[in-house]
Amino acid sequence: MKINGTPYRSVWVNEKDGWSVHIFDQTRLPFALDVLQLTTPEQVAHAIKTMQVRGAPLIGAVAAYGLALALRTDSSDNALEQQAAMLAATRPTAINLRWAIERMLTHLRPLTPAERVAAAYAEAGRICDEDAAQNEAIGQHGLELLRTLAAQRGKNDKINILTHCNAGWIATVDWGTALAPIYMAHDEGLNVHVWVDETRPRNQGAALTAWELGSHGVPHTVIADNAGGHLMQHGLVDIVIVGTDRVTRNADVANKIGTYLKALAARDNGVPFWVALPSTTIDWQVADGVREIPIEERSGTEITHISGRDDNGQISRVQITPDGSTAANPAFDVTPARLVTGLITEKGCCAATPEGLLSLFPEQG
């Protein structure tokens, strides 16, 4: 995707400065476009934990490069296993992180220590290329849904799409998941408009999704998290498209906290609720998402404090709760498959059922 006309991916390697890894600091967006240079696995782990880099597919790709950085210092068997475990433990809910690390280990374990550094960079690069290709395919399949809506309503009628959190190109290597069909529809000339949930407490929608859509010229409106149901009741939402951090083999969906409530409102109002994901986000080992997916608990200060730009143009952090009030901060919730209209993957769209998933991925049967 492009920023001010310049094409970027969300992670890249610079051979000229010691094969360091570069990412955008997502905690600084939308007010500053800062690039972080990561040179050690500890820096990669810190970036993932603090959400300087976030988004399930992108976390996996950056962690893969983190392992390559680690091997530059020590490529022994012990170091390989220890550094992989350290990176895999940074965030518990997104399955892409574990998937990427396991793929790297499978590729690197049979090699001699002398062969591992070059092989690690090459494999991490393949993970990135595959993610970009998968997300572009997700966009094409999701575009068909929006084309169908446009045909039903008339090409010039507005299609109102609601999304939650950020599932755009900044959350993946390129294109994004839930936003990829929207970008393609907009570029094709369809009259799309996006309702952007603010996505408290970290405001990934208000900060990141709105920034992405605005940079691409897609019409959008930021709304409070609790406004979605009201808009659906009044016929102002035609379709909901969200991303996900983990999907079970039964098609339960873990996504940013608040997604479940949107799915309930969509079901009550007859609004299609679609989830976009690459196959790397499917956890074939888990069936019951509510009981089996670990939900990350983040610091309560994300609830009690908020950052933004003040009237003087300065970025500041303020407390919004009384002294002494405690805060609970589950970062994700699980939407049961029964509330999901369907899944958009790189292999096509399917029903949110075990049978639907297996129709696209029969090798998992």
TrEMBL record:
The positions flagged as active site in the entry are D245
Segments passing through the bilayer: none
Q: Does the record carry Repeat as a key word?
A: no
Q: Which reaction does it catalyse?
A: 5-deoxy-alpha-D-ribose 1-phosphate = 5-deoxy-D-ribulose 1-phosphate; 5-(methylsulfanyl)-alpha-D-ribose 1-phosphate = 5-(methylsulfanyl)-D-ribulose 1-phosphate
Signal peptide from the UniProt entry? none
Q: Which residues bind substrate?
A: R54, G55, A56, R91, Q204, N255, K256
UniProt-listed Enzyme Commission number(s) = 5.3.1.23
Residues the record annotates as the site (Transition state stabilizer) are C165
Q: Has UniProt tagged this entry with the keyword Isomerase?
A: yes
- What GO biological process terms does the UniProt entry carry, in alphabetical order? L-methionine salvage from methylthioadenosine
Its biological purpose? Catalyzes the interconversion of methylthioribose-1-phosphate (MTR-1-P) into methylthioribulose-1-phosphate (MTRu-1-P). Also catalyzes the interconversion of 5-deoxyribose 1-phosphate and 5-deoxyribulose 1-phosphate. Part of a bifunctional DHAP-shunt salvage pathway for SAM by-products.
Entries under PANTHER family matching the protein:
METHYLTHIORIBOSE-1-PHOSPHATE ISOMERASE
UniProt-recorded name of the protein: Methylthioribose-1-phosphate isomerase
Question: What does UniProt list as this organism's lineage?
Answer: Bacteria, Pseudomonadati, Pseudomonadota, Alphaproteobacteria, Acetobacterales
Q: Which gene encodes it?
A: mtnA
